[in-house]
Amino acid sequence: MKILENHEMKLHSNMKVGGTAKKFITVEDKNELKEIFEKNSNIFLIGNGTNTLIDEGNLDMTFVSLKEFDNVRELERGLVEVEAGLDFNKLIAYMNKNNYSGLENLAGIPGSVGGLVYMNGGAYGSEIFDCISEIEIFDENHEIRRIKKEDLDFSYRRTEIQSKKWIIISAVFKFKDGFDLQKVVEIQAMRESKQPLDLPNLGSTFKNPAGDFSARLISEAGLKGTVIGGAQISEKHPNFIVNRGTATFKDISEILKLVKKTISEKYGINLEEEIIIIKNSDK
After folding, report:
1. Residue 24's pLDDT band (boundaries 50, 70, 90)?
2. Burial of 252 (C-beta count, 10 Å sphere; 0-12/13-18/19+)
3. What is the pLDDT of residues 108-152, one digit of tens each?
4. CA distance 207 to 69
5. In what residue span(s) does the FAD-binding PCMH-type domain sit (predicted)?
């Protein structure tokens, strides 16, 4: 393992906001996890930071990264084991190269494979669990084990992995033949035209409530374009909050509060964040 002390966490968030971590540990072998969890406290597993908002100041936390877990192994035709640290769009490229189909609708989503599995990430009617056969985890008892998909509890943007605070080591995907390159090209073009990819952001900020869309509610409530400090509700996509260059954790938190309060008062709907928020325990 590699251990860095007093490490700047804004380097690990797409929002470019974050304080100084007590430790930042890069895992090199999955068997190191047991030692890491036995010798450290207040641990947070950080993926690519594409949906993680990190508080500022001195963070009395140990951040653990599996970014070096990025191997892909074909078990048999259509059955592929992927380590959690692999960038998700490298998996899409692998599918293209090997003519595999099943996750094209998710093309362009930033993040690691483990991060998407953790929250059952998805887009355009598809979810990553559509193609998962089993996962390998480090569990709450500090044991490494494999769990079949049918033995897992998961739903829209939620898995029991979150509530039980398991760490995903790898996932086995079951793919069909026939990669749809045209669909991927269309979806990536759609993302570029509709999402503020030119500014630091954390992707979709709020989960969609049942039968509706957070972006529509935020727009109809007149909040599109709202600015607080250096943070703004995107004009391009109102379910995105962007950093205009000087945003602080407080700026972004105030926007989150404003949106939730406004939507609750106007529509009686309690929006729930899709992003992960890490607050400083000292506050």
Report:
1. very high
2. buried
3. 888 899 999 998 988 888 999 999 999 999 999 999 999 999 999
4. 28
5. 17-178
The token duo for 135 is 């996962």
Residue 273: exposure state from Cβ atoms within 10 A (0-12, 13-18, ≥19): middle
**Spatial distance between the Cα atoms of 59 and 145, rounded to a whole number of angstroms:** 31
- CA–CA separation, 153 and 176 (whole Å): 24
The two tokens of residue 216 are 């529509």
Burial of residue 198 (number of CB atoms within 10 Å: 0-12, 13-18, 19+): exposed
As a whole number of angstroms, the distance between CA 65 and CA 152 comes to: 24
Q: Name the residue ranges covered by the structural domains of the chain.
A: 2-65, 72-181, 198-278
Q: Phi/psi at 69 (nearest 5 deg)?
A: -85, 85
Judged by phi (left if over 0) then psi (alpha if -120 to 50, else beta), residue 13 lies in beta
